[in-house]
Design a protein that fits this description.
about 30% helix, about 270 residues, alpha/beta, 2 domains, three-stranded antiparallel β-sheet, Rossmann fold, six-stranded mixed β-sheet, 11 strands
Length: about 270
């Protein structure tokens, strides 16, 4: 006879992302080669690498826009599941990407763009009917980022910084577990870049997981504890920020001599 002790075993949550021997083709080119990578829920991680190294392909693989080559031993799971309804998945992962910004540069208003996050679109179309709850959540997301005044303004009339914050509000509107930032400072001036850093820090400190994909070392906020170096579709290094962000590793990554400095928790190249 088995007697219950009344003790509860703590269950370890499934990781946000688990990739095992993942290879992804873009046309006839290998964009990701035999990638092994695991990221925990709530973890703050940066994927760093030069242009063309496979960073955006990795993001598109996570969001199911690209699919890996099927082969023995290859596996990808997100939040513990290998099969997903793509709309359900996108409600758990908030995406901020340059591609999305380009798609939203229209006469759509800020509120419409934020609401479009519920429909995996880039604006509100006639067949979309956001209910009062969604309208309230959109207003809350915009207020959280201090852009409530942009609700009625066309995205095409916003500054690049305002448009980027609108996209972040769109990513937040369905209260995701993790935010994925793909080259977030593209097309931003210095002031907007600094505002974006502050926003990312606030979101990380609130408990949201942050996955930053970039080729700018200066974008790595202090809250990010782990860095993965990606070069030519392969993981070059993966570990703690102090161990990975070294002059030797970065020179190997970018193919040029590197001098590395640090100030107020941020790293800088020169």
């Amino acid at each position: 006879m088995v007697i219950a002790t009344g003790l509860c075993m703590n269950t370890i949550p499934e990781p946000l992302l688990s990739l095992a021997h993942i290879t992804v083709m873009r046309g006839d080119r290998v964009a990701l080669h035999d990638i092994n990578l695991e990221i925990a829920r709530g973890e703050h991680v940066c994927i760093l690498g030069p242009n063309g190294c496979g960073k955006s392909t990795l993001i598109k693989t996570i969001t199911r826009e690209c699919y890996p080559v099927a082969r023995d031993g290859s596996r990808i799971s997100i939040l513990g599941r290998e099969r997903w309804d793509i709309f359900e998945l996108r409600s758990l992962l908030g995406i901020v990407s340059p591609d999305l910004l380009a798609s939203c540069t229209t006469d759509a208003t800020g509120r419409d763009v934020v609401l479009s996050g519920f429909f995996s679109s880039t604006r509100i179309f006639p067949h979309h009917h956001p209910d009062p709850k969604r309208l309230a959540l959109a207003d809350q997301a915009m207020a959280r980022l201090g852009i409530g005044h942009l609700g009625g303004r066309a995205v095409a009339e916003m500054s690049s910084g305002e448009a980027k914050r609108t996209l972040i509000a769109r990513a937040l509107v369905h209260q995701p577990q993790t935010l994925l930032f793909d080259e977030p400072s593209n097309a931003l001036d210095i002031g907007a870049q600094l505002q974006l850093r502050d926003t990312m820090r606030e979101l990380a400190q609130s408990g949201l997981g942050i996955l930053l994909v970039t080729h700018h070392v200066s974008e790595i906020i202090p809250e990010i504890e782990r860095v993965v170096l990606l070069r030519e579709g392969r993981v070059l290094a993966d570990g703690s920020k102090p161990a990975v962000l070294t002059e030797e590793h970065l020179a190997n990554l970018f193919g040029v001599p590197i001098r590395l400095g640090k100030h107020d928790g941020y790293f800088h190249l020169y």
